[in-house]
Design goal:
This protein is an alpha/beta fold. It has a single domain, classed as 3-Layer(aba) Sandwich (Dihydrofolate Reductase, subunit A). It has five helices and ten strands. The strands form two sheets. Strands 5-4-3-6-1-7-10-9 form an eight-stranded mixed β-sheet, with helices on both faces. It holds the Pfam family RibD_C.
Length: 185
């Protein structure tokens, strides 16, 4: 059975999407990016909302750029090898292999995916993740916390949800970025 992991870069004040600007620096560092690639290598299925898919589809062709650093090349190849499910009512087609569109998020279908999987799955994007959290589907939370306070936006955790978590791993990087992995109790 696979675990469902929710992970995002988040500001120090808990926003996965800033109302204005970006979330700060740190994730673009090669050491951090290599670490993220290592953490997500066991994930073989990504669940995306449309906006997150449109951000991540960059990895479909990132390995074709000249002089690609090894950590970028490796992440691109891992992403390309994974299955992707995009939940969208508006997206007409996808531009990556191993990708399909679902019109609605069905918690029972995701439960079956987890039960039948011999690998981990990831739900990406705070809006889609909120649905998975509300349905009790998320097994682990991986936060990459920047040093910025952005003052508003879309929160990493949805409002109105109570979760009791156990910290199972943490790491601080020279950039100031902090990684924290929590497991659902």
């Amino acid at each position: 059975m696979g675990k469902l992991v929710y992970s995002m870069i988040t500001s120090l004040d808990g926003y996965a999407v800033a109302a204005e600007g970006d979330l700060g620096t740190g994730a673009e560092d090669p050491e951090v990016h290599t670490f993220i690639g290592d953490v997500f290598r066991p994930v073989r299925t990504f669940l995306y909302g449309r906006r997150m898919y449109e951000t991540m589809v960059f990895w479909e062709t990132a390995d074709r750029e000249p002089d690609v650093p090894a950590h970028i090349l490796e992440y691109a190849r891992d992403w390309q090898a994974a299955d992707k499910i995009v939940y969208s009512t508006t997206l007409e087609s996808v531009s990556s292999t191993r990708t399909r569109i679902e019109r609605t998020f069905d918690p029972d279908a995701v439960r079956r995916l987890k039960a039948e999987s011999d690998h981990d799955l990831s739900v990406d994007g705070p809006t889609l993740a909120a649905q998975a959290i509300a349905a009790g589907l998320v097994d682990e939370y991986h936060l990459f916390v920047t040093t910025s306070v952005v003052g508003g936006g879309t929160r990493f955790f949805p409002d109105g949800v109570r979760l009791d978590l156990d910290l199972v791993e943490e790491r601080a990087f020279d950039t100031g970025l902090v990684y924290a992995r929590y497991r659902t109790r």
